[in-house]
Design goal:
Blueprint: E1 3-4, E2 6-7, H1 22-27, E3 38-41, E4 50-56, E5 64-69, E6 72-76, E7 83-85, E8 98-104, E9 110-117, E10 133-140, E11 152-156, E12 166-174, E13 186-193, E14 198-205, E15 216-217, E16 233-239, E17 245-250, E18 254-260, E19 271-275, E20 280-281, E21 293-294, E22 298-301, E23 311-320, E24 322-330, E25 341-342, E26 354-361, E27 368-374, E28 385-391, E29 399-402, E30 420-424, E31 427-435, E32 454-462
Antiparallel strand pairs: 1-7, 2-3, 3-32, 4-5, 5-6, 6-7, 8-9, 9-10, 10-11, 12-13, 13-14, 14-15, 16-17, 17-18, 18-19, 20-21, 22-23, 23-24, 24-25, 26-27, 27-28, 28-29, 30-31, 31-32
């Protein structure tokens, strides 16, 4: 195991600017730094990573688990100031995994979900000719330091199974809400790519991840069978104060909501709730220097007693021409939603991209946070910073803060399909991928670019006392 010290962002005394400040939007004034900001490098030198997840233990916020593919786990015992890599072996008989996500339950156990497979079908049409694959969950009893050796298969295909489908992009989350009658339950949702379509599957555990229910379909409508616009993508779930589960994903040009009132035994028919532009950015709408990007929505739930029913979603799309980050709020359990609110506060139609957003609601304060990649400080739209936006009024206004002060640039780099953030009691924890400069001695690829590696970084901010 190794220990990594955090890189501390230099704090510059800047005037805090409102999310809707005309000065900030029109003159390009520098963003204020996120209060108490620290950034830690958590990946080993010489390795690459992407598609991360992060979780904080509600029983002991000093415990933070940060994961990334290929199925690498790091943990912190000092509230995200430094991280140590845990020893983690793949499930027996399987190779290294990806599409990782992590959570803590109400007893302080950490969980990791991951996808493991032998081979894809084809790059786009994943289910056609796919090999053995499966979704697995494992548990840590000590905040991420050690992990139980046996992984539980939520759904797995064996060699020789007829009509193998492709299980993809699993997301694990827990009911750790004290007022919930289902506190302690674990939930996993994911995409199943089939030969003719794509659907969303769901399973639950009521015994601390030892077993999971038989997966069942919760998407009323099916999507197209390719990992592209038209396919179902981006399952995310959250739990309300009474244990109600709210889950979202993208279906075409809309965000879909599915609701369970019985601890994940069943779901109401899913329905479209928020109109969006296509979530996949490639080709003519690609982001310079990035091989592909996704803007699928995430949902965040305010679980405070007496505040039940407030839901927020955030996504990014190119409805303004360049790519922006948006949010929408429901105050009535998802029945109605506000018009879209632009989260990034640079000028509209400025040709600058903001992308790979992730939203979280602090379960103690109810404040909302959205983290995203941001290129507003580079007129050429190539250098990338990380910005953290905060709303204290349910998404009516967003204040933008600089989380990093040094940009990165990429040349047709794969940054994954998502980043992640979480919040607890005024503390915010984010994780993202940064591209590293390409090796000048490496041979250029077919497109003439030298593709570099990447590193994983965890950001911390403390909004205690910030109005």
């Amino acid at each position: 195991m190794f220990k990594l010290s955090p890189f501390v962002i230099s704090a510059i005394s800047l005037l805090a600017l409102s999310a809707n400040s005309p000065l900030s939007a029109q003159t390009g004034s520098p963003l204020p730094p996120a209060p108490g900001a620290h950034v830690a490098n958590i990946s080993q030198p010489g390795t690459s990573g992407s598609e991360p997840s992060i979780a904080v233990d509600p029983n002991d916020p000093q415990h933070v688990v940060a994961v990334y593919q290929r199925a690498t786990v790091t943990y912190s015992t000092d509230g995200g100031m430094s991280f140590t890599q845990a020893e983690l072996h793949p499930p027996q008989g399987w190779g290294e995994g990806g599409d990782v996500s992590t959570t803590f339950d109400n007893k302080g156990h950490a969980y990791l979900s991951s996808l493991h497979f032998d081979k894809l079908g084809t790059a786009g049409y994943w289910a056609h000719g796919a090999g053995r694959n499966g979704i697995f969950v494992r548990r840590s009893p000590d905040g991420g330091k050690t992990w139980e050796p046996d992984a539980v298969a939520v759904k797995a295909w064996k060699d020789g199974d007829k009509d193998i489908q492709w299980e993809d992009m699993p997301r694990i989350f827990a009911d750790n809400v004290p007022s919930s009658p289902y506190a302690g339950n674990l939930y996993v949702g994911w995409i199943e790519w089939r030969i003719e379509d794509s659907i969303i599957l769901f399973a639950r555990s009521t015994d601390g991840g030892k077993t999971f229910s038989t997966p069942f379909r919760i998407s009323t409508n099916a999507g197209l069978p390719r990992d592209d616009n038209g396919g179902l993508v981006g399952f995310i779930g959250g739990v309300d104060s009474d244990g109600t589960i709210y889950a979202t994903w993208n279906d075409g040009n809309s965000v879909v909501l599915a609701v369970s009132h019985d601890g994940g035994k069943s779901f109401d028919p899913s329905r479209s709730v928020v109109p969006v532009a296509p979530p996949y950015f490639g080709g003519a709408v690609g982001i310079p220097g990035v091989s592909r990007a996704m803007g699928f929505a995430q949902i965040a739930v305010d679980p405070r007693p007496g505040k039940g029913g407030r839901l927020m979603v955030s996504w990014s799309d190119f409805s303004n021409g360049d790519i922006d980050v948006f949010s929408s709020t429901s105050e009535d359990h998802g029945k109605t939603w506000t018009s879209r609110m632009r989260v990034n506060n640079d000028p509209v139609h400025d040709g600058i991209d903001q992308f790979f957003q992730w939203i979280a609601i602090d379960p103690i304060t109810g404040d909302a946070y959205v983290q995203f990649y941001d290129r507003r400080n580079d007129p050429a739209n190539r250098k990338t910073w990380v910005t953290l936006a905060r709303s204290t009024d349910g998404g009516k206004k967003w204040t933008n803060y600089a989380w990093t002060d040094t940009p990165f640039a990429s040349e047709i780099q794969f940054l994954g399909d998502y980043m992640w953030c979480t919040a607890y009691n005024n503390k915010v924890y984010g994780i993202w991928t940064e591209a590293l400069p390409p090796d000048p001695s490496a041979q250029p690829g077919p497109n003439g670019f030298r593709r570099g590696s990447s590193m994983m970084r965890v950001g911390y901010a403390d909004f205690t006392g910030v109005k």
